Write a sequence for this structure.
């Protein structure tokens, strides 16, 4: 009887391990992509975005840790497809397979919020705060927070977090929307917004969001 139970245990254990193997392999491949690249033209993600996914503020590389995985996967697909243009990211995204893009997005989506050095907080009544929290209705500009959430914490897969992202990165994206080199926004919302902003407006709102604290991770993600 004990022999039979031992055999059943080994069979069930083997079956459970076999079922878990794809998940283990998926996690391992994502870690390898982030730390080593894929050997087919995609360098290690962490070389620009950091080992903890916090990004590099001085270089304008954004934080990826804790971002919505569906949003990240879509951005990589858009880089590969050309609706989001960038001299660095486009060839990298095209060097990744669809499965690899999904794996990297899921990996960063699961990472905990990193500790970042907050930028100095601008005045609460300054132009950046006004645009972010109240908009400029004389130019038909809604508040940024209406889509990106209070303090820029992000809302779902279409409106990413702006809080704590490098000001240089936010400003560069606003200029990309205005130039039309980035055109993957829902209903062309950001193209309209960016064309109504001056360079000074872009700098002010970027600095305001860069100084906002990162949201606390909820839901056990």
């Amino acid at each position: 009887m004990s022999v039979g139970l031992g055999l059943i245990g080994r069979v069930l254990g083997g079956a459970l391990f076999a079922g878990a193997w794809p998940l283990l392999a998926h996690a391992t491949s994502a870690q390898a992509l982030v730390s080593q690249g894929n050997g087919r033209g995609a360098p290690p993600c962490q070389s620009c975005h950091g080992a903890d996914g916090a990004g590099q503020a001085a270089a304008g590389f954004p934080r990826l840790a804790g971002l919505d995985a569906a949003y990240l996967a879509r951005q990589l697909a858009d880089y590969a497809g050309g609706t989001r243009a960038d001299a660095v990211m486009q060839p990298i995204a095209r060097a990744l397979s669809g499965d690899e893009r999904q794996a990297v997005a899921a990996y960063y989506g699961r990472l905990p919020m990193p500790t970042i050095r907050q930028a100095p907080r601008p005045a609460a009544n300054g132009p950046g705060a006004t645009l972010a929290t109240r908009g400029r209705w004389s130019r038909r500009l809604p508040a940024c927070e209406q889509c990106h959430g209070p303090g820029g914490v992000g809302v779902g897969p279409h409106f990413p977090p702006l809080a704590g992202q490098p000001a240089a990165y936010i400003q560069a994206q606003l200029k990309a929307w205005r130039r039309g080199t980035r055109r993957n926004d829902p209903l062309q919302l950001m193209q309209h917004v960016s064309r109504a902003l001056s360079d000074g407006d872009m700098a002010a709102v970027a600095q305001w969001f860069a100084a906002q604290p990162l949201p606390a991770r909820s839901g056990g993600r």
About this structure: Confidence is low (pLDDT under 50) at residues 1-5, 7-26. The two ends are 44 Å apart (CA to CA). The CA atoms of residues 60 and 169 lie 5 Å apart. The first helix runs from residue 2 to 36.
